[in-house]
């Protein structure tokens, strides 16, 4: 089993986020590490969290959307934008120093918004966020995934990959690929155009204790492989939360095949993953969502070596009892 190290809690300077005064982030759902800065999207808030990788000092919130959310959990859940994915976009015309792209899950009509945040040469946010409509990207997915739930995103060369999360009711785990050169004009255009995925790789992750594993995020390795995180959450759809009975990390090769999948020692609900270099050594960095606003999210880490070198198969002691693998690849 994989043992992760807890590095810090995601405490923030006490902030009125449009509801209650909060002193921590609880529902961390996506992560990008740029240098020593951690950017975290939160699925029950209207803000982006910004933290230091090197210091346990409280982070701060950066507003993405106007408005306010209710304090009561059920009401807040109905109204939240459900930001689940965060990805670093390389420099392009509108953002010469790159950008961060935050994406809603698409699981409800009010969860099809996102935000683009321009960066400066140091990787800091430069300027106000640009709110974007994701309907042109998510619309074509509705016929492909009845329980749409986009949980992660990565840039792989000139492609944007979106991570679709399955659940106990529908094991629709998949990686959708789009030409980045077509995605960015679509998001910035604000018109009625749509963009179907160029290809879809469906992944069978198996299960833990009878509960299906669902993808929660991904990050690229320098050699073109992709590390994926997954959790076994006891829920039958993309809206309701459930108990997390286990979690796992896997590696997908450059051809889209799942070549390893190993369980985490603790059932942490890992929802965001990124590469970082604390202490000058490459690590996988991960953030959690406890599904409880009273419990702070935490930042966890795992040295990249020997993890990335050793995981070359899906069998063996400590790994999944089920038979995970690549279900199918399809052109769309």
Verbal overview:
InterPro entries: DUF6929 (IPR053851). The chain contains four helices and 25 strands. With about 325 residues, it is mainly beta. The protein has a single domain, classed as Tachylectin-2, Chain A. A hairpin with a 5-residue loop joins strand 18 and strand 19. The radius of gyration is 18 Å and the shape is globular. The relative contact order is 0.16.
Question: Which blocks of ≥5 consecutive residues have pLDDT under 50?
Answer: 313-321, 323-329
The largest sheet, given as strand count, sense and whether it forms a barrel, is:
5 strands, antiparallel
**Number of helical elements:** 4
**Number of domain units:** 1
Which strand order spans the largest sheet, edge to edge or round the barrel? 12-13-14-15-25
From the 3D coordinates, which CATH architecture would you assign? 5 Propeller
Mean pLDDT comes to 88
Architecture blueprint of SSEs:
Elements: E1 5-9, E2 11-16, E3 21-24, E4 28-34, E5 37-42, E6 47-52, E7 60-63, H1 73-79, E8 83-89, E9 99-104, E10 113-118, E11 130-133, H2 135-138, E12 150-156, E13 159-164, E14 174-179, H3 180-189, E15 199-204, E16 207-208, E17 211-212, E18 214-220, E19 226-233, E20 244-252, E21 258-263, E22 270-276, E23 283-288, E24 298-303, H4 304-310, E25 325-331
């Amino acid at each position: 089993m994989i043992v992760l190290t807890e590095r810090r809690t995601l405490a923030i300077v006490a902030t009125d986020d449009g509801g209650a005064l909060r002193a921590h982030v609880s529902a961390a759902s996506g992560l990008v590490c740029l240098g020593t800065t951690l950017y975290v999207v939160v699925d029950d808030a209207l803000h982006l969290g910004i933290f230091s990788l090197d210091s346990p000092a409280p982070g701060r919130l950066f507003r993405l959307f106007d408005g306010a959310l209710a304090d009561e959990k059920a009401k807040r859940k109905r109204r939240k934008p459900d930001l689940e994915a965060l990805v670093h976009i390389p420099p392009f015309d509108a953002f010469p120093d790159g950008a961060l792209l935050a994406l809603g899950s698409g699981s409800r009509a009010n969860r099809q918004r996102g935000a683009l945040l321009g960066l400066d040469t140091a990787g800091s946010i430069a300027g106000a966020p640009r709110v974007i409509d994701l309907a042109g990207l998510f619309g074509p997915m509705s016929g492909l995934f009845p329980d749409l739930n986009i949980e992660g995103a990565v840039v792989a060369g000139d492609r944007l990959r979106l991570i679709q999360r399955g659940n106990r009711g529908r094991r629709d785990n998949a990686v959708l690929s789009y030409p980045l050169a077509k995605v960015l004009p679509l998001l910035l255009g604000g018109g009625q155009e749509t963009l179907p995925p160029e290809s879809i790789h469906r992944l069978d992750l198996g299960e833990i204790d009878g509960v299906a594993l669902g993808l929660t995020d991904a990050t690229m390795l320098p050699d073109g492989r992709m590390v994926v995180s997954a959790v076994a959450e006891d829920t039958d759809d993309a809206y309701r939360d459930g108990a997390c009975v286990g979690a796992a990390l896997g590696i997908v090769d450059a051809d889209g095949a799942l070549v390893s999948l190993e369980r985490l020692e603790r059932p942490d609900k890992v929802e965001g993953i990124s590469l970082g270099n604390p202490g000058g050594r490459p690590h996988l960095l991960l953030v959690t969502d406890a599904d409880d606003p009273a419990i702070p999210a935490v930042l966890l880490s795992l040295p990249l070596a020997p993890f990335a070198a050793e995981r070359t198969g899906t069998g063996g002691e400590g790994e999944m009892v089920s038979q995970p693998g690549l279900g199918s690849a399809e052109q769309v």
